[in-house]
Write a structure and sequence with these properties.
Oligomer: single chain
CATH superfamily of the largest domain: Fumarase/aspartase (Central domain)
Shape: elongated
Structural class: mainly alpha
Strand content: 5-15%
Number of helices: 23
CATH class of the largest domain: Mainly Alpha
CATH architecture of the largest domain: Up-down Bundle
Number of strands: 11
Largest sheet: 3 strands, antiparallel
CATH topology of the largest domain: Fumarase C, Chain A, domain 2
Strand order of the largest sheet: 4-6-7
């Protein structure tokens, strides 16, 4: 994909994905390059004509704003800012996130309100195109004056400092730039500040997490449809006309998905008559799935929308605007007018994104709880509609069943994972710690929150893998059973017989009461025991890595393999071939 960065055009999700996956070549649009050059010249002339201090141009940073800087030291001021602020700690973030960061920063700077030279934007673009990736430690940002520490590590690489990953190796930035034929850039007035004032670090992580959460959410809907079939549930709670009466967008969407994913199920049709199933309502973990997963859809979508708005915004400080006493600025004119305002604001603050990223943790907590409740039901012989205690293989003898744990333990893992996800739900953004001698007295803490969301994501994949294991086992057992069990109402002739027995016992003065329920068995042929087409297609693929458990065996590696497949989006892809996830 070719991407032409322009000052008046937004980037989109498709382009972002292409950059992250190394499927894009980027260039700066010539008209935008000309605009950036002309505005920079205008700004430099304006600053040289002014006698008042301008933050970021001829004054120190943070609480050093009161310190004047000589004209000959202005480049050193910018380099020192980057070098001193590169204080990140911990592991380096994944490559895809670094690509996002660089792309998002280039997009913000090319808007033309930061006052930087076009060469600075082109340096970011060249490094992206050559896949020269700065090593960015994960900790160190409070998400207030931008992600200062992480973005400073990116900026280091532009000037030939710090370490990068290039051609699969870690090396000095200067070495990588030389190999790629790129010269380190020398920062000029305001450019260091323009590079590290913004929240592209947490935005990059948030965008990655949104993409992964969308996979997990759709997987959860697939699981709902498959679990419902195995558990002899009904599709009625997911009817479109039902959800029109309470039209929350996320619930309407998930209900439609689940309904479509349950269509044409032979197993469902085999027990459609109430007399066969004998159940009036299904438990909430199935019946209310659309109402539970729907808000998760909305939280994920809202986060992605906010992030897309953010990455197309101007986020550094100060920002260059037309002077208030002018008639504004004509976008067709590269100049603001004869006068400009250098406006100090707070567009670098991370709170608008922190609150949305936190919602991803909320969504995970809700989804994990739902999945865990289903896993608990699968192993409960009293609630799994004839699948047996711990989903033990039906062909085992009673003696063999007595020494078998079968699928007992994965439910423990499910409980542990759900609890672990809940434990990660600390709302960092609500716990402010003042920094910079009180100058930055309210910070978002969104960067640390974003890191925690990213590191919690694999747990969501693991807990979904446990549920898929139960679906596979439950579906396999259902195919072994030649009947559907039913706890149907006791028929009149049976009631009368029981009443007669009760009277005989009373005549004998035996203190004995009967409270019996008749369990009938409705025969089903092999074709009636199957899930629908999409369900069977998914079972066939997933059973290759997690075959039905017929005797006690080690399950850890199989569950891990399922988690990797789920996280890759393969289940969603298989389902998307049959239904639309729009």
């Amino acid at each position: 994909m070719k991407i032409n960065l322009q000052h008046d055009q937004d980037i989109n999700l498709e382009q972002i994905s292409a950059v992250g996956d190394r499927q894009a070549k980027i260039k700066l649009d010539p008209k935008t390059r000309k605009l950036l050059r002309e505005r920079r010249n205008q700004l430099e002339q304006y600053i040289s004509d002014q006698e008042y201090p301008a933050y970021g141009f001829n004054r120190g940073f943070g609480h050093n704003v009161d310190l004047a800087v000589g004209h000959d030291l202005l480049p050193d001021l910018q380099k020192n800012l980057i070098v001193s602020h590169a204080v990140g700690l911990g592991d380096a973030i994944p490559d895809v996130l670094v690509r996002y960061m660089m792309f998002f920063r280039a997009q913000s700077l090319c808007r033309g309100y930061s006052g930087v030279r076009p060469e600075l934007v082109e340096q970011l673009i060249q490094m992206l195109n050559h896949d020269i990736l700065p090593r960015v430690p994960e900790m160190g940002s409070v998400g207030a004056s931008g992600d200062l520490a992480p973005l400073s590590h990116v900026a280091l690489a532009l000037i030939g400092e710090g370490k990068v990953k290039y051609q699969g190796r870690i090396m000095k930035s200067a070495t990588a730039l030389r190999k790629a034929g790129i010269k380190p850039i020398k920062l000029e007035m305001k450019e260091g500040l323009a590079l590290n004032n913004g929240i592209q670090f947490m935005s990059a992580i948030g965008m990655h997490c949104c993409r992964q959460m969308q996979i997990y959410l759709k997987t959860a809907c697939v699981h709902t449809a498959m679990t419902a079939q195995v558990m002899l549930a009904t599709e009625v709670p997911f009817r479109e006309d039902l959800h029109r009466l309470r039209p929350h967008p996320g619930s309407v969407k998930t209900a439609r998905w689940i309904y479509e994913l349950m269509k044409d199920s032979p197993l469902r049709e085999a027990h459609r008559e109430y007399r066969i199933d004998g159940e009036i309502q299904d438990p909430y973990n199935i019946r209310c799935a659309a109402q539970i997963l729907g808000p998760c859809v909305e939280m994920i979508d809202e986060c992605e929308t906010a992030l897309l708005r953010e990455v197309n915004s101007v986020t550094d400080n100060p920002i260059i605007l037309p002077a208030e006493n002018t008639n504004g600025w004509d976008p067709a004119d590269p100049y603001f007018g004869k006068q400009v305002d250098i406006v100090s604001g707070g567009h670098f603050h991370g709170m608008p994104i922190a609150v949305r990223i936190y919602n991803l943790l909320q969504a995970m907590g809700i989804m994990a709880s739902l999945t865990n409740q289903r896993c608990a039901r699968f192993v409960d012989g009293n609630r799994n509609k004839g699948l047996g205690r711990d989903l033990k293989w039906p062909e085992l003898s009673d003696r063999q069943k007595a020494i078998s744990s079968a699928m007992m333990m994965p439910e423990y893992s499910s409980a542990a994972l759900a609890n672990a996800i809940w434990g990660e739900a600390m709302p960092n953004h609500l716990f402010n710690i003042s920094t910079n001698s009180g100058q930055e007295d309210h910070v978002s803490m969104g960067a640390g929150l974003a890191i925690r969301v990213m590191k919690t994501l694999p747990k969501m994949g693991h807990i979904l893998a446990v549920e898929m294991a139960y679906i596979i086992q439950g579906a396999a057992i259902r195919k072994q059973l030649d009947h559907i069990p039913s706890r149907a109402p006791v028929y009149e002739e049976v009631k009368q017989k029981l009443a007669d027995i009760q009277l005989e016992l009373q005549d004998l003065k035996i203190p004995f009461a009967l409270n019996l329920q008749v369990q009938e068995q409705y025969p089903v042929d092999p074709e009636q025991r199957k899930l629908n087409l999409v369900g069977e297609k998914i079972l066939a693929q997933m059973s290759k890595v997690f075959p039905p458990v017929k005797k006690d065996t080690i399950l850890s590696d199989r569950l891990q393999a399922l988690a990797e497949i789920i996280s890759s989006g393969k289940i969603v892809d298989l389902a998307a071939a049959e239904i639309s996830f729009h």
